[in-house]
Amino acid sequence: MKNKYVLMIRAYLSHFLLLKKFHAINNLKHLWR
Q: Its domain of life (predicted)?
């Protein structure tokens, strides 16, 4: 059960980082316009 919990946290963190990266790229595109 502990492993499942850790995997969930890791999946959430990787998803969160991906979202932040995506937003950062979008912000750069807006700045370049």
A: Bacteria
* pTM of this prediction exceeds 0.70: no
> In angstroms, how far is CA 15 from the centroid of its own chain?
4
Q: Token pair for residue 18? A: 């991906």
Q: Is the dihedral of CA 17, 18, 19, 23 positive or negative?
A: positive
DSSP per residue, 1-33? -HHHHHHHHHHHHHHHHHHHHHHHHHHHHHHH-
Q: What is the pLDDT of residues 3-31, one digit of tens each?
A: 999 999 999 999 999 999 999 999 999 88
